[in-house]
Amino acid sequence: MKIGFFSEAGYEGKVSRNHPNMRTDVAWVCALNATHHPFQKIETLPDKLYDVGVMILPKKREMLLNYPLLEQYRRVCKRVTVMQESYYNYWQDSPIAEQVWYFNFITEMDLIFCHNDVDLKYYSGLTNVRTELLPTVMITDGIVRRNEWGEGVIIGGNWVRDYGGFDSYQVALELTDDITAVTTGRMKKEESQVLKHIPWVLWREWIDILSQFNVGVQLGTAAAGTFNLNCSFHGIPCIAYSNSNTQSILHPLTTVELGDLEKAKEIANKLKDEKFYKLCMETTEKRYEAYYSEKKFFSHMERIFVSLG
């Protein structure tokens, strides 16, 4: 089965397994042996080139408003699908014209892919289009799992609402004042006065840096859940909300309901106990292999693609 991915990313072709920046969207292309094309190249492709297309729409869509993207997409792919971008209603921060365009586009799809169970219900109710999960996946070739245990805590985002960095910081303080955050494009300059930051690095370097930490905290909105998944791969307990699938499935002992900082702090203090920490570590390692290995991902996606006919 030939699968084509389409997004605003500038590269074209397949993704090698030693790609240095194997972030989620790139890992999907690699794991499915798919071929990626930028949006602007779609009109140059022949008819019915792919059995299934997967499109990741950009956050800013003004340049697509007057472009016949749907027409071109259906011409090139026998079955057309779209992948949710960010948390489920992020698109409603767009200008009205872009919101209407987005809604009209996704309602014409054969299937809408989503990150989490909560997203399935949202998009199904919004559009009446079939919804399925497109799980986050890691390509782990050549990566050494954590084999040394540091004392630091890493939080999975900066101090903005979407990442919940301030809340994560407050919970992390229950464990230590040795706290580090990842760097995103929305980092506030004042944050550097409060905690350490990992500089912007390619994914391959990031996954090695992550292995040096003891606990992860990610109390932001539910989207791809990459941080939670990466922690699980290394056996690092992660405290986060239950509306993220990678959290609730991989870290059941350190999961809290949305907004429950009291419980999050309670779990942080429990992680000081060596037996509880070891139980959390072993649980997430086992569940990674059981639910989120690349083999499990491929089997899940193959079933969906075959069902599209």
Mean pLDDT: 88
Molecular shape: globular
Question: Element order, helices and strands?
Answer: EHEEHEHEHEEHEEHEHEHEHHH
CATH architectural group of the largest domain: 3-Layer(aba) Sandwich
* Distance between the amino and carboxyl termini: 10 Å
Strand content: 15-25%
How many alpha or pi helices? 11
Q: What does the main sheet amount to?
A: 6 strands, parallel
Please list the strands of the largest sheet in the order they lie side by side.
2-1-3-4-5-6
Low-confidence stretches: none
Give the class from helix and strand content and strand pairing: alpha/beta
Q: What is the CATH fold-level name of the largest domain?
A: Rossmann fold
Number of strands: 12
- Taking all Cα atoms into account, the compactness measure Rg is 20 Å
Just give the CATH class of the largest domain.
Alpha Beta
Number of domains: 2
Question: Which percent range fits the helix content?
Answer: 25-40%
Structure commentary:
The chain has 309 residues and is an alpha/beta fold. It folds into 2 domains: 3-137 and 294-307, Rossmann fold (3-Layer(aba) Sandwich); 153-291, Rossmann fold (3-Layer(aba) Sandwich), CATH 3.40.50. The protein contains 11 helices and 12 strands. It has helices at 24-31, 69-76, 96-106, 117-127, 165-172, 203-210, 226-233, 245-250, 261-270, 274-291, 294-307, and strands at 3-7, 35-38, 50-56, 77-83, 111-114, 131-133, 153-155, 179-181, 196-197, 215-218, 238-241, 255-256. Helix 4 (117-127) links the parallel strand 5 (111-114) and strand 6. Helix 5 runs parallel beside helix 9. The longest helix has 18 residues, at 274-291. The termini are close together. The model has no long low-confidence stretch (mean pLDDT 88).
